[in-house]
Amino acid sequence: MDHVLSDGTYLSHLNGPRGARITVRVIEYTVLTTTLDKDGASGETSELFCLITTLLDPASAPARELAELYTARWTSETIFKHIKIEQRGGRTATLRSNSPAMVEQELWAMLCVYQALHQLAADSAHRAHLPVSHISFKQTLAAARRSVGADFSPRQLTAKVRDVQDDLIREAAKPRPGRAAPRATKRSGTGYRSLRPDEPATTHVTHTIELQLFPQDQRPAPPNSPAIPQITTYDETSPPPRQMASAA
Fold first, then answer.
1. Tens digits of per-residue pLDDT, 107-126?
2. 114 with 106: CB under 8 angstroms?
3. What is the dihedral of CA 125, 131, 137, 143, to 10 degrees?
4. Of the candidates 78, 29, 61, 80, the residue with the CA atom closest to the CA atom of residue 233
5. Dist. CA 83–CA 162, nearest whole Å
6. Strand 203-213 relative to strand 230-236: parallel, antiparallel, unpaired?
7. 3-state class of 34 per DSSP?
8. With 70 as the cut, is the pLDDT of residue 236 above it?
9. Is 7 exposed, middle or buried (0-12, 13-18, 19+ CB in 10 A)?
């Protein structure tokens, strides 16, 4: 630790290439998962997470927001799946181009189509006053493919887009609270227990982020000594983080 900031997080440093020192900000927190099922409420506290970021200003990058946004980084895997599998046409589909220049052009075209599809979903959600996450990418892709294959004149484009948006709004996902699925499998021969037929697949959960904040006049005790930092609690409905993060 180099310095405790005004919000209770602290600055430290990493050793970069050729002996360079990289200043980073460390945010420590735990996640309390409260589960509500037929047996009542139960809670479980995660291990201590250390979020390391180069965003050093607490005013422009509050600790709470960074801890919440950590879970959003996992959505990048969903984006890759949308482009590589669903939009491309399946796991076995390959690019048609045979030269590096044409491959680059084809990739840019795929990204443009992906952006256009999300713009269509965003416009549909805005019309219905819904979160964009309630409009399925697969449904948007299917609707776009149907409209491209349809026979209509350019003068009908506005009406056609409106019809596609109406379809997406009707098929929008219903709001769902935070859920957690027990680790189980339907097949034998694995290390996980089998899911009973009468057992619910999901349970309602609430995630609470507890920031471990240190007063400016108090340095944390050595790792082997007990330390009791101040705790600030925030309620969240997003899934808890899984491992150490590095946000730039």
1. 999 999 999 999 999 999 99
2. no
3. -20
4. 29
5. 25
6. antiparallel
7. strand
8. no
9. buried
